[in-house]
Amino acid sequence: VQQISVMLMELFQRARSEKPGQVHPRAAEFTLTLLAAMYDRSGTGYIKTRSAAAALIALSGDTLLAKYRAFFQFYAVPDGKMALITRSALRSLLTDLNQIPAIVGEGCTLSCVEIATHSCFHGVLNSAIVEEKFLSWLRSEPAVLLWLPTCYRLLATEMVSHQARCR
Fold first, then answer.
1. Quick one: pLDDT at residue 17?
2. What range does the record give for the signal peptide (predicted)?
């Protein structure tokens, strides 16, 4: 938790200097509290870096494709010249990401994660998949992660302005 705290302070300090007035002075503290509530419920003082990274990626303002690629990079395992994501790595990713809606009482069960993992690996004979298969599956908007593209679309529409007037 201490290492993540330092990293968050640096991250938000950099963001504050790039976008003055747009970053709350206590953003690092608030984010750390959120991460601890999601990933350290028992108060051990330990949060897996990969879990925290997944949450920060999911909550970032980046595009969905950039988020999906980052998820793959953090959870994939090297296999020669390429990286692959295994079933267990996908389960870990989905479990980590589902802590985000769970914090507001919208989590899914372990069976949802298993169903999603099975759907991602449907028709796959190998024990792992390449990035393109993973991205293709995420683009199909699996139910277990439907909240992620929904939140992205809501964020994207906040900036839309129309010249039409309503009566």
1. 93
2. none
What is the pTM (predicted TM-score) of this model?
Answer: 0.86
Q: Residue 43 — left, alpha, or beta (φ > 0 → left; ψ -120 to 50 → alpha)?
A: left
Q: Which CATH number does 62-159 carry?
A: 1.10.238.10
Handedness of CA 152, 143, 109, 77 (dihedral sign): negative
Residue 50 dihedral angles phi and psi, to the nearest 5°? -65, -40
DSSP 28: H
Residue 108 has a pLDDT of 76
Helix (H) or strand (E) holding 85: strand 82-86
Alpha-carbon torsion, ordered 88, 90, 95, 99, to 10 deg: 150
- Buried b / exposed e over 20-30, threshold 16 CB at 10 Å, is eeebeeebbee
Query: What single-letter DSSP state applies at residue 20?
Result: T
* Model pLDDT, residue 113: 92
Buried b (16+ CB within 10 A) or exposed e, 67-80: bbbbbbebbbeeee
99-124 residue pLDDT tens: 999 888 887 777 899 999 999 999 88
CB 76 within 8 A of CB 83: yes
- Residue 84: pLDDT over 90: yes
Domain chopping of the chain, boundaries: 1-47, 62-159
